[in-house]
Amino acid sequence: MPTVPSAEPTADAVDVTALLERGRTLATPVLKAAVDRLASPMDTVAAYHFGWIDAEGRPSDADGGKAVRPALALISAQAAGAEPETGVPGAVAVELVHNFSLLHDDLMDGDEQRRHRDTVWKVHGPAQAILVGDALFALANEILLELGTAEAGRATRRLTTATRKLIDGQAQDISYEHRERVTVEECLEMEGNKTGALLACAVSIGAVLGGADDRTADVLEKYGHHLGLAFQAVDDLLGIWGDPVATGKQTWSDLRQRKKSLPVVAALAAGGPASEQLGELLAADAKSNDFESFSEEEFAARAALIEEAGGRRWTAEEARRQHAVALDALDEVEMDQRVREQLTALADFVVVRKR
After folding, report:
1. CB–CB of 217/288 below 8 Å?
2. How far apart are CA 242 and CA 112, in angstroms?
């Protein structure tokens, strides 16, 4: 994967795995308690989605995701001078919203696999995927508001705004699948909504719960927004060229769904023979009735044209650029140096991951 980590040496001493595990360890019990509030069978369906049980209801230790957002919420609290545990309700709320979006996205996109397992709609049906997604969104707000503090109210406002932007981004993503051309600017706006908004919320919500003022929270959101764009740029690379063993998705997964992701959009905007040939193929694809029967070679040919036109290289460079902008934002507020190093290390992790 042609992504490059930050050149900052300070992040080398930070154990990112430990940060992710801390977020998972502190958030998971509260997350499980929240899911237990759901009526049957939604509680079981949600537990399957989170990887706590298998399709037969037996305990499972399936991959529950990277846990980047919970880790950021806990560090966010520390950025405000509070204990990391202060950010746990925010971490859980953000994780609930994130998984609400995954349940609905999998259904809308027709994805049959997530984290190397059948998706919820595939196992339990579309109705349960919709209902459980809705329930997780409601739980997210409940978890915050039941704290009963002014800070909880501020945190909830940020979460609901981020959720609305996330839904805006998903709507844009779907609409772009039916258009022959999408500009790079439109694609970045969509990805800023779909991915950047919730990551921005994750990295500010703990600080808000810890008593940070709006300026501090806004700067942390700026870091999170650009980190989200870097995160999505890497996701777009993985969506075409990622190893299915690592990603848990099909080969050429984004091409199969006709997604106008950054590599595709950048390649179409580049001009030149490869760009023109790609545009002709994708225009024909949009009118095809047998797209589902395309061979691996046909998808590979489209991926090769995207790379030849420069879409892969441009997206990797954009990931690095957004990564740099995110780190620059941290200079706008005072925070403990160790917290700054942790945020830098997590940003580095985002642009070099393989899944």
Report:
1. no
2. 17
The strand pairing partners of 118, in sequence order, are: 113
Q: Indicate the pTM of the whole model.
A: 0.90
pLDDT digits (tens, 9 = 90+) for 250-290: 778 888 888 889 999 999 999 999 999 999 998 887 777 66
Q: Helix crossing, 42-50 with 88-109: angle to 10°?
A: 90
Give, in words, the CATH class of 9-235+336-352.
mainly alpha
Given a contact cutoff of 8 angstroms between Cβ atoms, the answer to whether 306 and 263 are in contact is yes
Handedness of CA 139, 62, 231, 266 (dihedral sign): negative
The C-alpha atoms of residue 136 and residue 74 are separated, in whole angstroms, by 20
Structure tokens at 115: 């984290």
Burial call 21-39: b when 16+ CB within 10 Å, e when fewer: ebbbebbbebbeebbeebe
The DSSP result for 75-108, as a single string, is: HHHHHTTS-GGGGHHHHHHHHHHHHHHHHHHHHH
